[in-house]
From TrEMBL:
The lineage of its organism: Eukaryota, Metazoa, Chordata, Craniata, Vertebrata. Belongs to the MRL family. It is found in: Cell membrane; Cytoplasm, Cytoskeleton. Gene3D superfamilies: Phosphatidylinositol 3-kinase Catalytic Subunit, Chain A, domain 1, Pleckstrin-homology domain (PH domain)/Phosphotyrosine-binding domain (PTB). It comes from the Eukaryota. The keyword Secreted does not apply. One of its GO terms (cellular component) is plasma membrane. This is Amyloid beta A4 precursor protein-binding family B member 1-interacting protein. Its main location: membrane. It holds the Pfam family RA_2. Residues 146-233 form the Ras-associating domain. It is a peripheral membrane protein.
Amino acid sequence: MMLLSVKETEKMDDIDAMFSDLLGEMNTLSQSLMPSADRTEVDSALQTERTFSIGFTDLNESLKELEDHDLDALMADLASRSTTSECSLPTYQQAGSCADNEMAASALPPPSNSVESSGGLQTSEPQTKSDKFKLALEKLKEAKVRKLIVKVLMSDGSSKILMVDERQTVREVLDMLFEKTHCDCSIDWSLCETNPELQIERGFEDHEHVVEPLSSWTRLSENKMYFVSRPQKYVMFTNPQVFYMWKKKKECSSKINEQAKQLLLQEHFGGSTLIVPDLEGTLYLKEDGKKVWKPRYFVLRASGIYYVPKGKTKSSSDLVCFVHFEKFNIYNTKHFKLKYRAPTDFCFMLKHPCIQNESDYIKFLCCDDEHTLLLWVNSIRIAKYGTTLYENYQAAMKRAHPSASHKGPPPSIESSNSRPRKQT
């Protein structure tokens, strides 16, 4: 091992030290972002209120904007869960069966408003929408499954109000929006979150649970969720040659036929291991706390992004890890050339989803052109989500063309929960 001497004084200019510190502190950051058990009662109340609605000033406003049939569905679902939860109490809390509990409850004085002892809907159902959302508010606070009332913005400026719970995926919410908007079921439709403060946006992946990323938003956040068409959502499957033949001239890859595309998909997604695009090249890295960007040579691997230290070669033994994908999401950016003096506006950001404001733990990278940005952003998605991404594409194609069979035999993909990695 070589000992550092004079070069040690250049550590602040050397990106190696910065990355080593970053990797050493990521676990501490992750734990510090988790909810603390000793928060004040006020903070707990604010957190509880926030988790009920997204895109509204308070829960009452969101309930009032729910359509009548959605509100009725919410109340019926909450009532059924209330009854189910009573019947599934732990043994030490039960005084016999559910029937025994009902008999015991019948001996108690009747509750006000003629509410049934089982915790279900009122005997005399509320007649006005005001009565309905008051009852829904009570049931929401008692619910065991977390629910959100979400405002989803459309590209034409209108909005739709949805009720989602923690079990629903983006794919299921998209299906709900297809029914509400009567639009086509194109594979390009996406749910997208925007963060105006950081000037970033990210399209949710279809397998994600919607409540999870929304719960990372702060209470006073100006973040919004959009229902938009993103033509590049599944470009890695509609045009796989762009990513797996990127070293060849564009004229060659653009002439590839449909059969060759299917062979590429089968080769890279149909085997026992996922093959990540062998992407590498020079990107500009923003220094922490400064509007200074320095070129670095980066290499993509299944486990993360690596860089070539100064004076080293591009061999695997010399590569140093920049980020691991488990701790980061990738975001598109807006106007970073103006905000951060980036070399171009073709930038992307890597950050932990819980970070919602400016932070030293955010990483900024800049590309020379739009095509390079397309390659990096979508190749990172392939590396991060693996075969799950391809399964999302297949489900979207099936939804868009229910009567059409998928071209070519579907790849025999192993469980997406055990995504294989290519050795770096």
